[in-house]
């Protein structure tokens, strides 16, 4: 792996485990046993590393939440999107947990974030519409955007909310699974009978992971 990539992935690991605010470029360099000077050859400061991590996150986010083409069983599609949500929230948990603070410190990153989220919102509307078309959800066309916005708000703010509501700052897989359950609870009232049954199965599966 190239040194630049090692720096980025080391930073992601340290930010997730210890919080981005608590980690410096010296911590990152020491973690992969390179000199600070070597790190600065690739990145001028920590904020550039954060931007690079955001680029990875953005690419994965749009890839995972682009409407799936082709014929798939409805339960397979539901699992795909919920598993993607969990995977992203876990892999980039430092970003979700401290989103307002990170964006306020970097106007360029904030602009890029808004652009990516605009694309995501459009994709979410198309994904929800697809679930309506296969009779999993019963949502009027006029309400698709509102539903997408609600789901987006819950997913993007869940970890920040949990951090604010607890003295324990460590984000665990269980906390993220609770966020997935919250998403399911938001969707349930709009589900058809078939959709409700499938969401119930998924909910039970998530709960069983921590029984």
Automatic annotation (TrEMBL):
Give the source's domain of life in one word. Bacteria
Q: Which residues bind DNA?
A: 24-43
What PROSITE patterns does UniProt report for this protein, alphabetically? HTH_TETR_2 (PS50977)
Which range is the signal sequence, renumbered to this chain?
none
Listed Pfam families: TetR, TetR_N
Q: Which UniProt keywords apply?
A: DNA-binding
Q: Where is the HTH tetR-type domain?
A: 1-61
| Name used for this protein in its record | TetR family transcriptional regulator
> Which GO terms label this protein's molecular function in UniProt?
DNA binding
């Amino acid at each position: 792996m190239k040194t630049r990539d090692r720096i980025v992935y080391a930073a992601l690991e340290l930010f997730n485990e210890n919080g981005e605010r608590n980690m410096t470029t010296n911590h990152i360099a020491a973690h992969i046993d390179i000199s600070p000077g070597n790190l600065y050859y690739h990145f001028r400061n920590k904020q550039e590393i954060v931007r690079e991590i955001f680029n990875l996150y953005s690419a994965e986010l749009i890839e995972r939440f682009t409407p799936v083409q082709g014929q798939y069983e409805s339960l397979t599609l539901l699992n795909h999107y919920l598993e993607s949500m969990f995977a992203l929230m876990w892999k980039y948990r430092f970003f979700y947990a401290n989103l307002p603070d990170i964006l306020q410190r970097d106007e360029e990153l904030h602009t890029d974030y808004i652009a990516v989220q605009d694309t995501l919102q459009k994709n979410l509307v198309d994904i929800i519409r697809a679930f309506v078309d296969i009779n999993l959800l019963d949502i009027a066309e006029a309400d698709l955007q509102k539903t997408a916005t609600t789901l987006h708000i819950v997913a993007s703010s869940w970890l920040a909310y949990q951090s604010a509501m607890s003295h324990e700052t460590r984000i665990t897989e269980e906390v993220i699974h609770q966020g997935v359950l919250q998403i399911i609870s938001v969707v349930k009232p709009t589900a058809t009978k078939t959709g409700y049954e499938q969401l119930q199965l998924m909910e039970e599966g998530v709960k069983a992971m921590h029984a």
